[in-house]
Amino acid sequence: MTEPNTTGSDTTKPGSSIENDHPASHSEQVNEMTQAFFAPNQDFLAETLNDLTPPPPANQTILDDGTRVTRLGLGALSFEPKTRIDDRILIFSSAIHGNETAPIEVCNHIINDVFSGKVQIKRPTLFLLGNPPAMRIGERFVEENLNRLFLGKHAQKGKAQNLETARAKELESWVEQFLNAHTLDQPTHSTDESSAPNILHYDLHTAIRGSHREKFALYPYVPNRQPPRQQIAFMCAADVHTVLLQATPAGTFSALTSVKYGAESFTIELGSVKPFGKNELSRYQGIHSLICLLLEGRESCIEEEQAQSVDLFEVCHEIINTGDSFELNIAEDVWNFTPFETDSVIWKDDQQEYRVGKDTQYIVFPNSKVPAGQRAGLMLKKQA
């Protein structure tokens, strides 16, 4: 695929459109149970955007189908079905970056459909909105990139504390609390798919730059582990036809659940950054449908053969800002998955440089503005 997808479907399914600029103004009617639980706000998203201090109290309600809904805290909502169909546990997070609004709106629509009974949850499920303060100001973060602070990196010795470090600690605590309550007796960190914990975590994002592949997913690095074919098929069902296999440890939210709890986790990039109310949500129907299938336990309709339609890329080089003399030798506005041919100089400093080898490489997430020591981009090779 060499050209970005710039056209969406002309057909918007019910519950997948925004009537105006206000993020809580939906085409579907928010039912009385939703309004009662989130009062005086209209729904989960409105509450998260509007409630500054104090945070909403931890409380519960029971839906008509017997599902127990628990507010763990601001931007954290868990669902426990009355009857659990299997041992699968689901975590869906968005807003780790506050200006990536489309997946936030998708998840909010689904939550409203759960409250109304249109979607019936059959598995323990946790929905998280990662960075409410950044959501309110429409920025990626307030003080620091939240998606670099997990796996305890927020508490490293000498680490300055701020809004994002506090939120990372809070999110880690909620994930641990949720999984401790719902994980059956299974081993963790197993390389045997049959015995590994049946936990799925999809951390949903949108990209800050254009991409030759509009939707793609990143699979966190865990030694001796590859994504199951079923999960690759799930990505295809979500209209995600590209998966990046990461090669080094990271402090991302998906890495937390993958490394610490043995989850099948993905960071999923779903399009471009837009303000609340400006997203064409029909373009996100794939991930919307996949989440609903998983919630209701109906994903068996997804055939594993769909995995053949997904391109796999390996990270072959991690670009790190080496300091004052570091220079990223590409245009600031280059798109994700731009190809570079043999001998192209990608970066250099006063002591070294990185050139592309004999095979074409592709860049994602280039950013020359990151502080010294942080990742300034990834170089990829496509698997045969």
UniProtKB/TrEMBL annotation:
Question: Which residues belong to any copy of the Succinylglutamate desuccinylase/Aspartoacylase catalytic domain?
Answer: 90-284
Cofactor note (record): Binds 1 zinc ion per subunit.
Write out the biased-composition intervals (Polar residues).
1-18
Entry coiled-coil feature ranges: none
The EC number of this protein is 3.5.1.96
Kindly state which keywords UniProt assigns to this record, in alphabetical order: Arginine metabolism, Hydrolase, Metal-binding, Zinc
Answer yes or no on keyword Nucleus: no
The active-site annotation reads: E269
Annotated binding of Zn(2+), by residue: H97, E100, H205
| GO MF annotation terms | hydrolase activity, acting on ester bonds; succinylglutamate desuccinylase activity; zinc ion binding
- Identify which cofactors the protein needs according to its UniProt entry: Zn(2+)
Task: Tell me which family the UniProt entry assigns to this protein.
Answer: Belongs to the AspA/AstE family. Succinylglutamate desuccinylase subfamily.
> NCBIfam families this protein is in?
arg_catab_astE, PRK05324.1
Spell out the protein name for this chain.
Succinylglutamate desuccinylase
Provide the gene name from the record.
Answer: astE
